[in-house]
Amino acid sequence: MGVMVAGTVGAQPTRLPLASTDRLVPHNTTVEAVRFGGRNAVRVAVAPEVTARPEVRAGMIEPETYVRIADLAFANGVIEVEVASAPAKDAPAGARGFAGLAFRLAHDRESTTAPRYDAFYLRPTNGRSDDQERRNHAAQYISHPDWTWSRLRRETPSRYEAYVDLVPDRWTRLRIDVRGAKARLFVNGAEEPTLIVNDLKTGPGAAGGVALWIGPGTVAYFRKLVVTPM
Questions:
Q1: Computed from CA positions of residues 112, 45, 147, 57, in that sequence, does the dihedral angle turn out positive or negative?
Q2: 3-state secondary structure the chain
Q3: What architecture (CATH level 2) is domain 4-229?
Q4: 203-223 core/surface letters (b: 16 or more CB in 10 A; e: else)
Q5: What does the alpha-carbon distance between residue 51 and residue 207 come to, in Å, rounded to a whole number?
Q6: I want to staple 97 with a disulfide (CB 3.0 to 4.6 A). Which of 29, 40, 86, 221 is the partner?
Q7: Model confidence over 96-120: pLDDT tens digits?
Q8: pLDDT digits (tens, 9 = 90+) for 46-77
Q9: What does each C-alpha distance from 226 to 2, 17, 44 come to in angstroms?
Q10: Number of Cβ within a 10 Å radius of residue 23
Q11: Residues 137-195: pLDDT tens digits?
Q12: Longest pairwise C-alpha distance within the chain
């Protein structure tokens, strides 16, 4: 099968209901088809063998954890999905149910180099927290391997994070609009973006894969992925 490139003139949208694991390639994760909230979806969690690693349990490293969509490359356009997530039962205290979408993903599974990608994700347990600072960190942009959430927060406080109303394990619609070096995150059909990034760290001409992304201590459910090229 050839690679379907989202972001080329004349290309058609790629629609995946995510009712099965077809075309889903886990990376440090497990993925299975399930029913959640009365809907068909896929469940994504950190692989047990990854969670069991001493350096992961101690919080010394955060391994890359995502599910790549096979045979799909993306440069510019719109990515949409529905996601519901929450911390796993055995998650560390700092877990927030981190879940979202990675795009422009470049990763050779045979290589030892870290994957490169941009991503938007949510922290659903922050959405209605009584702590205003936590609320302000409900939505996040990152660009790995260099621009982690901690570096962005340290060097550019508040620029790549925003508040949005969220509830754990409730279906939430995400839409990411990517144009060159700019990307906007829309949540639950809002007309205005929750978060605007004017300087995507992968650069204006980058391209790569699309992935269902989760963070440490998360169990997430995804459904109805649509990738529309520009």
A1: negative
A2: CCCEEECCCCCCCEEECCCCCCCEEEECEEEEEEEECCEEEEEEEECHHHHCCHHHHCCCCCCCCEEEECCEEECCEEEEEEEEEEECCCCCCCCCCCEEEEEEEECCCCCCCCCEEEEEEECHHHCCCCCHHHHCCCEEEEEECCECHHHHHHHCCCCCEECCCCCCCCCEEEEEEEECCEEEEEECCCCCCCEEECCCCCCCCCCEEEEEEECCCEEEEEEEEEEEEC
A3: Sandwich (2.60)
A4: eeebbbbbbbbbbbbbbbbbb
A5: 30
A6: 86
A7: 999 999 999 997 666 667 899 999 9
A8: 999 998 888 887 778 889 999 999 999 999 99
A9: 19, 8, 18
A10: 17
A11: 999 999 999 999 999 999 999 999 999 999 999 999 999 999 999 999 999 999 999 99
A12: 50
Separation of alpha carbons 139 and 208, rounded Å: 23
Cβ proximity of 101 and 210 under 8 Å: yes
Beta bridge partners of 222: 42, 83
Distance CA 154, CA 132 (A): 18
| Region of residue 224 (phi > 0: left; psi between -120 and 50: alpha; otherwise: beta) | left
Read off the tokens for 127: 């959405």
